[in-house]
Design a protein that fits this description.
By secondary structure, the chain is α+β, with helices and mostly antiparallel strands. Helices cover about 65% and strands about 15% of the residues.
């Protein structure tokens, strides 16, 4: 399909936007990790880039959460302010994995699809289903962009530790990340 203005409001277009923005979020998490190591004295960031190269979103988010917990080890209140960011980003990662690894049945209107994925657990197997629309993907993409901005804010707070974390990580702001 050749891209034109009518291609914009399709499930394919929004799916592509979502994936591109999600990868930008993953890159931003890596950059935040690199910044944290930089202020701790790492002179050649390429060593860390090599270590982080094949890491996916879950382990990167978990590593940064642990690193930030250590960074704020003497300031527990500060870590508590930002900790919710990591929890909400894990929810976004789970949603992304459901969308990417599920099976979509796209209708001829090209504006929505049914998404299904088998879920295996201790009680056997069940099928998870969700209606995926242009609007729902666009809304999720907004949340991914906001999460990326929050990690950029976190990087800024690493470089300028006297900044007020509440300004960037209030509950009202973080509630916007809920999926």
């Amino acid at each position: 399909m050749k891209f034109n203005e009518t291609s914009k409001n399709t499930i394919h277009h929004e799916y592509g936007n979502f994936l591109i923005e999600f990868e930008q979020l993953v890159l931003t998490i890596k950059i935040t990790i690199i910044a944290l190591f930089g202020i701790q004295g790492l002179k050649d960031h390429n060593y860390l880039r090599i270590v982080l190269q094949d890491q996916t979103a879950y382990p990167l988010n978990a590593k940064l959460r642990s690193l930030m917990s250590h960074y704020y080890k003497d300031e527990d209140k500060k870590f508590k302010i930002i900790d919710r960011l990591f929890i909400l980003v894990n929810d976004i990662i789970e949603k992304r994995n459901f969308i990417v690894h599920g099976t979509s049945f796209i209708y001829s209107t090209n504006i929505d699809s049914d998404l299904i994925k088998d879920k295996i657990g201790k009680f056997g197997i069940k099928v998870e289903e969700e209606k995926l629309t242009v609007e729902s993907l666009a809304e999720l993409t907004k949340k991914v962009k906001l999460a990326e901005r929050k990690f950029n804010n976190l990087t800024l707070c690493i470089y300028e530790p006297d900044r007020d974390l509440n300004k960037y990580f209030s509950n009202e702001q973080l509630d916007l990340l809920k999926v």
